[in-house]
Amino acid sequence: MEKVVIIGSGCAGLTAALYTARANLAPLVLTGRQPGGLLTTTTVVENYPGFPEGVDGYELMSRMQKQAERFGARMQFATVEAADLSRQPFALTADGERIETECLIIASGAGHRHLGLESERLLENKGVTYCATCDGALPVFRNQPLVVVGGGDSACEEALYLTRFGSVVYLVHRRDALRASRIMAERALSHPKIKPVWDSVVAEILDVKAGKVTGVRLKNVKTQAETELACAGVFVAIGHVPNTQVFKGQIEMDEAGYILPKGGAATNVPGVFVAGDCADRVYRQAITAAGMGCAAAIEAERYLAARQV
Ligand code: NAP
Question: Average pLDDT of the chain?
Answer without folding.
Answer: 96
